[in-house]
Design a protein that fits this description.
CATH topology: TIM Barrel
CATH class: Alpha Beta
Oligomer: single chain
Distance between the termini: 13 Å
Low-confidence stretches: none
Strand content: 5-15%
């Protein structure tokens, strides 16, 4: 069966409620839009209170389906639910180890699944489960805890909404190495992929697809705001990432979605909302690059900024819309 039902490489983007129809008009044929579900499982800040009784998910699914776009929810509740706030890695793990918190967590996730199932009427909906958490579990050698959590997620989906697609998140830095900064040789990249695939297989939980992120901040944002002068990608970095996803996909048996890819471009002035990056132009501006990435096991690229002030699709001068529209007008890249 095709992963997420795709025969060609798909494009998607982060998109707020009530944005589905305008997005479909600006990029005819676009296949995915995504939205975080966050805020924690205690109190009134969580997604289930954004609209009454968790209907935020229902509304987002309905408008997506009506516009012909598949909705993706990034379920990111472990951190904000932690009984031990602090560093993200230990806070996430504390959530998984706290029985009272997890009872609320499973109730919250089940509500999201039910709302999506009822609103979808058989259409595809994707739930992307806890980015970063898996990387922290790997770093802390918590394979047993990771497996217990993963199997419960899959079991709950199977019980509540079996037609929903589940996405596991691969964080390469879970290996203790970040190729963006270490510039490792190909042999090291292959070894990282082997370790990541082994960690995934060791969960003994079958997710439908694997998401991974390249960097959730534009290069210019990192330089200007984070004083990070080493996060930009060259052709060598793109090669290493294609190698990583290819090796992971072959070893894990799962296809890969690139998620939260920065929306900056080379025409911007490195001010808030207008930071430079080269990933939109690398992939959407060069069909050969897209073909190489499709051959690496990647089936979709979802663009979006991961912090306030990063470049967004409506602040980039229109380049994302123009290139994405052109990609679909020409005909998408077929998957191998």
């Amino acid at each position: 069966m095709l992963a997420l039902g795709l025969a060609a490489l798909a494009i998607g983007v982060t998109d707020f409620p009530n944005g589905a129809v305008p997005l479909a008009q600006k990029v005819p044929g676009i296949q995915f839009r995504y939205q975080y579900l966050a805020g924690g499982v205690r109190g009134k800040n969580g997604w289930s209170h954004w609209n009454p009784n968790g209907t935020f998910v229902s509304l987002y699914v309905r408008e997506s389906v009506k516009a012909g776009i598949t909705p993706v929810f990034t379920y990111y509740q472990a951190l904000n639910s932690s009984p031990s706030p602090g560093a993200e890695d230990t806070a996430d793990i504390a959530t998984l180890r706290d029985a009272s918190t997890m009872r609320l967590y499973w109730k919250d996730l089940a509500l999201a699944f039910r709302r999506a199932r009822s609103a979808a009427h058989g259409h595809r909906v994707v739930f992307h489960i806890e980015p970063d958490l898996w990387g922290y579990l790997m770093q802390h050698h918590e394979a047993k805890l990771a497996g217990t959590f993963a199997r419960h997620v899959v079991r709950l989906r199977d019980q509540v909404a079996p037609k929903l697609d589940l996405a596991w998140h691969m964080s390469v830095w879970g290996t203790g190495d970040d190729p963006t900064y270490s510039d490792p040789p190909d042999a090291k990249v292959r070894d990282d992929a082997r370790r990541l695939a082994a960690f995934y297989r060791g969960l003994h939980a079958k997710f439908d697809v694997v998401f991974t992120d390249v960097d959730d901040r534009d290069t210019g944002f990192n330089e200007q705001v984070n004083n990070d002068q080493h996060s930009g990608w060259t052709a060598a970095d793109f090669h290493r990432h294609d190698l990583l996803t290819r090796e992971f996909a072959q070893r894990s048996g799962r296809r890969v979605v690139l998620w939260q890819v920065p929306l900056g471009n080379s025409t911007l002035d490195n001010t808030s909302g207008h930071y430079r990056d080269n990933r939109v132009e690398w992939w959407l501006g060069n069909r050969k690059h897209l073909q190489a990435t499709a051959r690496s096991g990647v089936i979709a690229i979802l663009f979006g900024g991961g912090a306030d002030g990063t470049t967004q699709k409506d602040t980039d001068g229109g380049l994302f819309y123009r290139l994405a529209k052109g990609y679909y007008a020409r005909g998408p890249v077929r998957l191998p």
